[in-house]
Each structure stands twice: as C-alpha cells, then as structure tokens.
Amino acid sequence: MGFHNAGWFAYLRHDEKQDRPVITRALVGRVWEFARPYQTRVVGLLFTILLISGISLISPLLFRDLIDNAIPNEDRTRLGWLAVGMIGIPLLNGAIGVWQRHLNSQIGEGVIYDLRRALYAHMQRMSLRFFTQTRTGELMSRLNNDVVGAQRAISDTTVTIVSNIVTLIATLAIMLTLEWRLTLLGVAILPLFVLPARRIGRILRDLRRQSMEYNAEMNATMNETLNVSGALLVKLFGREQRELDRFSEDGAAVRDIGIRSAVVGRWFFMMLGVVSAVGTAVVFWVGGLLVLRGEFSIGTIVAFSTYLRQLYGPLMSITNAPVEFAQSMVSFERVFEVLDMPVEIVEAPNAQALPRVNGRIQFHNVSFAYDGLAGDEKIGLDEIARFTWGGGGAAHLKRGKEKEDGASDNGNETAPQWALSDINFDIAPGKLAALVGPSGAGKTTMTYMIPRLYDPSKGQVAIDGRPIKNVTLNSLADNIGMVTQETYLFYDTIRANLLYARPEATEAEMIAAAQTANIHEFIIGLPDGYDTVVGERGYRLSGGERQRIAIARVVLKDPRILVLDEATSSLDSLSEALIQEALKRVMEGRTSLVIAHRLSTILAADLILVMENGRLVEQGVHDQLLRQGGLYATLYETQFRHVEEETSPAAPTTMNENGAPL
Fold it and tell me: What does pTM read for this prediction?
C-alpha cells in the first residue's frame, strides 16, 4: 500500500530495538508459497527420501544374517547373495541419490530465482526516496547472500530434517522388533539432547542474523569505494588507508562473528557427541549382558549397534533441527523484510493510461517534506526493515496522515522540514518555463514531482488537467523526458544506451536523434561507432559527450513534456555551445521546464518561476519581474547584467555557483 511522506519518516523513527519476527506458522506458510509451484517435484523428492531411508535399513539385517546364519552354517550360496546385497544396496542408493539431487536442485534453484525476481521487482517499484536512504551494497547483499541462504533452507535444511525424521521413525520401528528394552534404554537419553539444543539454538540464530548484517555492511563499503566515482574520490583525497581501515573494521566484524558461530556450534556438537557415546556405551553393556545370558544373538547385537548409530545420527540432527531451521529462516525473514516494505509511489486502483498529452503542467498548492530526522542520523536498509517488522508502523503512519490532514502535533514527533511550500503555477502546452533561484531553493525537488519520482505531501500535480496520481506510471513516463545534471549511462554500447529510451526505434531514428543532439559526428568518428562501449557510468566519455548522448536518448523517446537541468558550467565552451544548440532544437514544440543557468534561456522563457527557500516567490516574464523589483531583479543585477553585456556566441556564459542546482 502507498503512504504519505510524513508517515514514511514517522515510520523510520520507530524504536529500532523492536524485536524481529519469530518463526511462526505464518512465516513457514509464506515460505511454502514460494515452494508451491514446485510441489510435484517436492512429492518426488519425498518419495526418494522414503526409498533411500528404507533401503539403508536393510544393511544391518544383512550383517545379522551373515553372523548368525551364513558363517555358522557354512552356507556359501547365502554368503554370496549377502555379498551381492552389500554391493547392490549402496549402488541403488547412489542412483536414487542422483535423482534426489536433481529434484532438490530444481526446487532450490527455482526458489532462488523466484525470490530474486520478486525482490528485484519490488525494489524497482520503490520510490527515489528509498534509494537515497539505502546503499547499493545493502541491496546487493539481500539479493545475493540472503537469497542464497533462503535457498539452503529449502534445498538443504528442510530435506535433511525430513530425511532424518523418516530414518528415525523407520529405525525405531525395526529396533523395537529386535529388542524393545534396549530400544527404550537408547531413547531414554533424549532429554540430554533437547536441553542444550534450546539454549544454543537461540544463540546461533542471533549470531546468524548479526553475521548477515555485518556482511551487508561490508558489501556496502565495497560497493561505495570500488565503483568509478568512489575510487576517483578516494584517490583524489588520498584516503586509501582510511578506506582500508574502514573495510578492515567491517571485515573484522564478519571474521569475529564467524569464529564465534563456529566455536558455539562446535561446543554444541561436542556435547551431543558425548551424550551419544554415553547412550551407546550403556546399550552395549546391557546388550552384552543379554548375549552372555543367551537372550540375544551376536548377530542381533551387531545389527542393533548399527541401528543405534543410525538412530543417534538423525536424533542429534533432529535435536539440532530447530537450530538449523531457525538459522536458515533468518534468510527468509530478511528477504520478506524487504518485500514487506511499503511502496511509496503506487498507481491508483482505477488508474488509466495517459494518452499523448498536449503538455499543460499545473501545480495546485503543492507542498513536500523530506523528513524531520537529525542530519547526522543514518537510516539504512536494515533500519527501514526493522520498522516494517517492528509492529508499530501502522500507528506512525496514522500519525503521519493526521499531520497531513492538519492535526496538531503532540510534541512527540519531529515537525516535517518542508522542501516545497504551497507551490502554484500553470505552464501552457508547448511553452518554455525557466526555473531560477539560489542553491537549495527547491528547484530540483519541484522537477521530480512531474514524473512522480516524489509525491507531494500536500496538493496535486496535473497534466492536461488530469491529476498524475490517477494515471498509470508507465504512461506518465512515456509522455515525459528528463535530462538531469548528472548523466548516467549503462556499461554498454552507445547504441544500447540510446535505444534504452525506445527499444523498437529504427537505425534511422536513432541516427536522427543523435544528429539533433549534435553527437552523431563524434560517434561515427569512434573506431566502433555506435557499438563503442562507454565504460562504467559512461566514464570513457567526457561530460559534454555524456550529456549529448543523454539528450539524444530523450529525443529518441520523443516526449511531449521535457524537464531538464541546463547545467553546463563544468563544460568547455565548445561542448556548451553544442549542447545549447541541441537543447534549442529539442525544446521546439514541447512543453519544457528548465532549471535555467544561462541568461539566453531565461530571456527566451514564456514563464519564469523564481524559487527561494522552497517557495515560489515570483512568476512572470523577464521585463515584468524586473519591474517588480523582487528576488529576480536582485539576481539579475548581481548575476545577469554583466552576462547580458558580455555574452557572445563564442563564449557562452553561465550563472555562478549561487545559481547552481540543488
């Protein structure tokens, strides 16, 4: 379900120390929902478990018959058949085991595929806010480490538990037929298995969760510092040792928790081994007395001792099953934590596709708050997930909704920090609106409202008179093209990056878009032309080249509404001139909202929107705003007048840093 901005961050402020979910019937049932598509294979897997367990029980009976009948009676034929049986049983078990492994891997790999797909799809639906609050490494950890752990829960842990249960029941049945008194004696030590398992099981489960969280932290550190941007920053500031120290700290935490888990587990199995040895010794002693008294044959005590080992092995494993199961279910918990995070930007139930629009953009009393958190407070994926499972989210969401509706704050919640306040404007179809104002005024935030990267906390945004909350997200995206200041290109060819906008576009359409963006001549001059790989984030290209490819990508999409950040201050004069010429062609006939940094764009605008501290303080055309003598007039006098006097085609100019984007 969707929820409002105030509710989201009230949600995040919920007490971090709430307990995580416990293993419940509902959790197990949810796990089964992922295994349900493979239920036919699951049945086949259970059948192989029954076969292997049943066949394994025959071997001790062969040994008993060998000792009690074949050898004393010197029966060579019987001896030969027993030898054949001793060879045939492991061969048959091995063949069935291969089949079992095939079914098991199909189930496990199928579940891991379904989980990853569900996680990836859910993350794709999350709002931009989610990605600004989490780190990529944490997301990768959930998609990789946690999903693999969840797969082990189904393909390894569950299969082992079922196999041991079947083996235990069958072994007990045969042992009872051989000698019920010794069987009861062997089972009498069961409480000694159970008691330590309960205590250590809780410890190992907590260690497992801590280990996963430490691994996620380590993955996040690697992801931040081993990509191109991170590595460049580290080298420019000479912080290699600092980052090594930070990584070492994360790695040490992973190492220490791994050592502790291994030692605790080893102590647990040592205790179980001692208990098993005591039980075996007692049974051998009593069984030996029965043999001496003539109540037991030697072959029977040998077979019984073999069955006893087959009993204690599964018994130890089943005793430890809650421990193993709890540890493996931690992975499912962490996967479900992400799947249960509410999606902030959602389509209305009756959302309709937005047809090709004329391009009228309207803001009606739009306000937006990021959050009221302290600036030094870190909110990561684990924290967000913890609030989801903490049980208090609904109340906080309710309080967030009450705030939106104007209810008074009770003093327990931090007041929202408004990035935008009561914004109203109307851009006519096909017109150019220039967005100006000092840094931090809210310009970029405003542009993010149009494609619903953020939803207003109050008010609404409409296109052609239709509130954008009532249209499908895909149809909205089809009508809007956006070029941000930070251009992102995939590690792929130029062709693939261009066709990302419209995969069905023809070669001619792609080339025409590149020509419009003044980048075609550069591309064909490359050794591989349009098949040139641009590198990580497009770093093999210059900033101007990346921006022109981004413009060509939007041209190929052919949207009716264009939103762009006209940031060219970091480019050389030639690149800036080429980009400005390209943008002029691209904006023709389209409704354009531009975060403007150049005087020529501002003068050409049909509407100038002047922002300050999240408020739209002025709007109008150049001459009108100058006459008002407000913020725009001040900006013009301090930043634009000398530009107007000095600007020439050969030396395009931009606003200084006070007019930089957010």
Answer: 0.69
